[in-house]
Amino acid sequence: MDRHTLEQFRTRARRVTLPENVRESVLDEIRVEKNERARGTRQPRRSMTRRAAVGAGLAVLGGAAALLALSVIVRPGEDAPATTEGNWFVLKAYADGVSQGEGTVLAQRSISLAGSLGGSESSGWYAAHSIDLRCEGADIDRIDYALEGEFVSPEGQPDEEFTENAVWFDALYRRPYEVGEGEAYPDHGGTGAGFSVSYEEQQADEESFNRQVWTSFPTDDEIRAARAAKDALPIDAATLEDELARQQALNRFRFVLERRSADILAQTTLVMTVTFADGSEQVKRYRISPAENFDETYQSYLDRRARNGAILSYYRNAEPKPEEYLEAQEATDGLYANWPDLYTITEVSE
Length: 350
Description:
Elements: H1 3-14, H2 20-33, H3 50-74, E1 88-91, H4 92-95, E2 98-101, E3 104-106, E4 116-119, E5 124-130, E6 135-138, E7 140-149, E8 166-173, E9 194-198, H5 202-208, E10 209-218, H6 221-231, H7 240-265, E11 268-276, E12 281-290, H8 294-314, H9 323-337, E13 343-348
Antiparallel strand pairs: 1-6, 2-3, 3-13, 4-5, 5-10, 7-9, 7-11, 8-10, 11-12, 12-13
Helix pairs in contact: 1-3, 2-3, 6-7, 7-8, 8-9
């Protein structure tokens, strides 16, 4: 079993909850074999061998629950079933990914396309990605996140002009309207090269802060050419074909910026250090990289966005709206809600 398959198996098994009657039945059989008295008042039932009890439980529960039932039998505890793995953790996005072999998965809707793109030719450019950084495991107390690599900016945004290659964490408070005048914003646990969060507060942290990984990079010839092609076309197109050309040029510029950001991410390592309830620690490292078919998949996605965007822009002032406008609107909503999976996650050794 490869590393990713094991992580998937453990994670999915942990998400399964055994029905109480099944759990107690399996535990009772174990206690009988150990000459222990079953807890509570049990209904009379036929004598059942340990093997029969296990077989019945597996037949009912299915694959993932079967793993939990087996863990009860392999290492039964006095009061509750023990896990087979002890202290462990995994980046949820990694466990939920589609295996590509050799410790690499295709991330499934856990790494967004760049939600913020900007800058200027005279300075540099930036792109920000939302990444699902939640982890799962057993007996976790705290999670420390850090970025490692040549371009990591420990203090966050390195300068006002984005003139150098850099990568950093940022945390935007989602509810600024709740902060009164003169009051401090809630503690975000750190930005720049890293931050910390307790395991129990992961969900609360996600609801309070929009954590993103930002990248910046200077202008180069390809960016300059893509921007020039975009700016050369008029904003108010005379025909639908002209508007399509404008949308395609805009998306070509967007593609180049996304690719630059992806290249910086690929040279950066996400380090997760987990402290468990017993005080012990484990460290895992993950690398986010553009998928093998990144260029083709993203370009195809942008082409569909360009076609629909051209129709929406060209007919935006038309009344009543033509049928193709309504169809393009629906298709665009679907494209924004279902962006392509363009990134892989690889667990790497030190």
